[in-house]
């Protein structure tokens, strides 16, 4: 039995990998053989979808504008100008930096405008426009360390951080061989690591580094003195492979922006207006709306996920205890595969993998992934509870001529519920915490909102403390409710 199960799981994995490779190959063939109508399609729908990772001031970041959280920055102003030139509306889709390229490849966004350097590695997957902005690289340090950390050679044997997958990450790896490279997923996490002395320096583009140092008197910047070619040192807009018509239109807008010097004269000044921290409160109370929105999404996804997860889980459990071998094996494959693969990978597959065939919004993709993943665990909980009911209950019901459906509905399941209720409660609590994973595709749940507050206030620890407290309040309250229900059903 175990060997057969492992063999089936291997077959399922091979099939999924094959499907993924075929989808990629099909997309490449289609891009190579289909006439490019990308620009025409964008104009037809009247919307230009821009993918960005809004935690990189002054390029793109979240700010509280008139009581409403808004994505602002230099790149956002460029995106607005491009949309205006094309005669369409601009739709900004926030994503984690690591998800940007795959979102473009799967058609979730039309372009990536997010301080992206056109490296040769990235150019294998996407096409780049002309460079629209060029800057040097700086190292952010704690101001108290300025006497000892004066250049990149000063970091020998010391931890230095950068965002994973960025040009700065590669620069540390290649040009600071004596430093200990630390990669993290967001700029806010890096700055917090610097201020808490987990790293001694953070490498960022000079504009972004200056923005952080200007807004936080405890930080300073030094010249990184990195060697970069003109292309890699600059930022460009990424479009899908073969989207030549869109790339040509974007290059025309870039040329106009550069001729008018709009970035230096206007866009950076607009971004700087939101970065000034002397006239805004960094108290966590001032950002209650951000946390409230995060709670709304977290609880909403959790409730929907547990409801649909329970329905699907009961159905799978029924299949698992069925006498029909086909249904039983389908249920086994379903539960084993979902429990043996990470939820994060499932979220990414549903949003980007299935998203290549169906236009699934990020929130819906997150709910589907959470519901399906939860159902696999609930099915096993329910199956264990049902099979734990004594055989005498089944025999008594049959001797009385009670139908199977009525037997399970009125006799077996109510008894099983008493024994599985604590496990179901634990699963619900786990589900609430697991919703944080969907922040990777841009769903604005509690962890995502915490990152926004970190970037907005330049405070690393306080937003984390508030988030932990909110999770504790939610889960502690839920635990008390579940315990009360448990006492009532016994």
Assign the CATH class of the largest domain: Mainly Alpha
Report the sheet-strand fraction.
Answer: 5-15%
Radius of gyration: 26 Å
What is the CATH architecture assignment of the largest domain?
A: Orthogonal Bundle
Fraction of residues in helix: 55-70%
The DSSP helix count reads 18
Q: Write the CATH fold name of the largest domain.
A: MetI-like fold
Number of strands: 15
Distance between the termini: 37 Å
* Main sheet strand line-up: 5-1-6-15-7
Instruction: Profile the largest sheet.
Output: 5 strands, mixed
- Structurally, the number of domains stands at 4
What gross morphology would you assign? elongated
Q: Structural class of the helices, strands and pairings?
A: alpha/beta
The stretches of 5 or more residues where confidence is low (pLDDT under 50) are 28-33
Keywords: Amino-acid transport, Cell membrane, Membrane, Signal, Transmembrane, Transmembrane helix, Transport
Subcellular location: Cell membrane
Domain ABC transmembrane type-1: 295-479
Pfam family, one: SBP_bac_3
Brief digest:
The chain is an alpha/beta fold and 490 residues long. Helix content is 59%, strand content 13%. It has 4 domains: 34 residues; 147 residues, Periplasmic binding protein-like II (D-Maltodextrin-Binding Protein, domain 2, 3-Layer(aba) Sandwich), CATH 3.40.190; 87 residues, D-Maltodextrin-Binding Protein, domain 2 (3-Layer(aba) Sandwich), CATH 3.40.190.10; 205 residues, MetI-like fold, CATH 1.10.3720.10.
Q: What do these coordinates show?
A:
By secondary structure, this protein is of the alpha/beta class. The protein folds into four domains: 1-34; 35-134 and 234-280, D-Maltodextrin-Binding Protein, domain 2 (3-Layer(aba) Sandwich), CATH 3.40.190.10; 137-223, D-Maltodextrin-Binding Protein, domain 2, CATH 3.40.190; 285-489, MetI-like (MetI-like fold, Orthogonal Bundle), CATH 1.10.3720. 59% of the residues lie in helices and 13% in strands. It is built from 18 helices and 15 strands. It has helices at 2-33, 38-45, 74-86, 100-105, 120-123, 167-175, 187-195, 206-215, 244-259, 262-275, 288-320, 325-339, 343-353, 362-387, 391-399, 404-434, 446-457, 461-489, and strands at residues 47-52, 55-56, 60-65, 68-72, 89-94, 111-112, 126-128, 133-134, 137-142, 159-163, 180-184, 201-205, 219-223, 234-235, 238-240. The strands form four sheets. The protein has a five-stranded mixed β-sheet with strand order 5-1-6-15-7. A five-stranded mixed β-sheet has the order 11-10-12-9-13, with helices on both faces. A hairpin with a 2-residue loop joins strand 3 (60-65) and strand 4. It is elongated, with a radius of gyration of 26 Å. The model is unreliable at 28-33 (pLDDT under 50).
């Amino acid at each position: 039995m175990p060997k057969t199960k492992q063999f089936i799981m291997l077959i399922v994995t091979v099939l999924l990998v094959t499907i993924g490779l075929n989808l990629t190959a099909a997309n490449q063939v289609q891009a190579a053989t289909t006439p490019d109508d990308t620009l025409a399609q964008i104009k037809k729908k009247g919307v230009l979808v821009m993918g960005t990772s809004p935690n990189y001031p002054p390029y793109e970041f979240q700010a509280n504008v008139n009581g409403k959280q808004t994505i602002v920055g230099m790149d956002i102003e460029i995106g607005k100008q491009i949309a205006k030139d094309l005669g369409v509306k601009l739709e900004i889709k926030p994503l984690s930096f690591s998800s940007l390229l795959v979102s473009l490849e799967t058609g979730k966004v039309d372009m990536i405008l997010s301080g992206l350097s056109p490296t040769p590695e990235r150019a294998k997957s996407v096409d780049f426009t002309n460079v629209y902005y060029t800057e040097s690289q700086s190292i952010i340090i704690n101001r108290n360390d300025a006497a000892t950390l004066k250049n990149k050679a000063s970091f020998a044997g010391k931890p230095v951080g950068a965002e994973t997958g960025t040009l700065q990450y590669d620069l540390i790896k290649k040009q600071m061989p004596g430093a200990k490279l630390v990669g993290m997923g967001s700029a806010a996490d890096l700055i917090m690591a610097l201020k808490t002395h987990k790293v001694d320096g953070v490498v960022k583009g000079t504009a972004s580094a200056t923005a952080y140092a200007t807004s936080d008197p405890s930080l300073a910047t030094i010249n990184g003195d990195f060697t970069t070619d003109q292309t890699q040192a600059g930022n460009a807009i990424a479009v899908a492979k073969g989207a030549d018509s869109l790339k040509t239109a974007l290059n025309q807008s870039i040329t106009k922006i550069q001729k008018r010097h709009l970035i230096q004269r206007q866009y950076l000044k607009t971004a700087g207006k939101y970065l000034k921290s002397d006239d805004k409160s960094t108290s966590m109370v001032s950002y209650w709306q951000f946390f409230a929105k995060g709670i709304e999404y977290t609880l909403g996804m959790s409730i929907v996920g547990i409801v649909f997860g329970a329905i699907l889980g009961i159905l799978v459990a029924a299949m698992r205890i069925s006498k029909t071998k086909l249904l039983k094996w389908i249920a086994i494959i379903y539960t084993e595969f979902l429990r043996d693969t990470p939820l994060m990978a499932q979220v990414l597959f549903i949003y980007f993998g299935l998203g290549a065939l169906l236009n699934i919004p990020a929130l819906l993709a997150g709910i589907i992934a959470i519901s399906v993943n939860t159902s696999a665990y609930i099915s096993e909980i329910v199956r264990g509870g049902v099979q734990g009911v004594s055989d005498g209950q089944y025999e008594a019901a049959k001797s009385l001529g009670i139908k199977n459906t009525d037997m399970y509905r009125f006799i077996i399941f109510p008894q099983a519920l008493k024994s599985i209720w604590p496990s179901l409660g634990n699963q619900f609590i786990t589900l609430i915490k697991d919703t944080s994973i969907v922040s990777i595709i841009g769903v604005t749940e509690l962890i995502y909102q915490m990152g926004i507050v970190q970037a907005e206030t330049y405070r690393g620890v306080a937003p984390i403390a508030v988030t932990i407290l909110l999770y504790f309040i939610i889960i502690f309250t839920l635990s008390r409710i579940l315990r009360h229900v448990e006492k009532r059903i016994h």
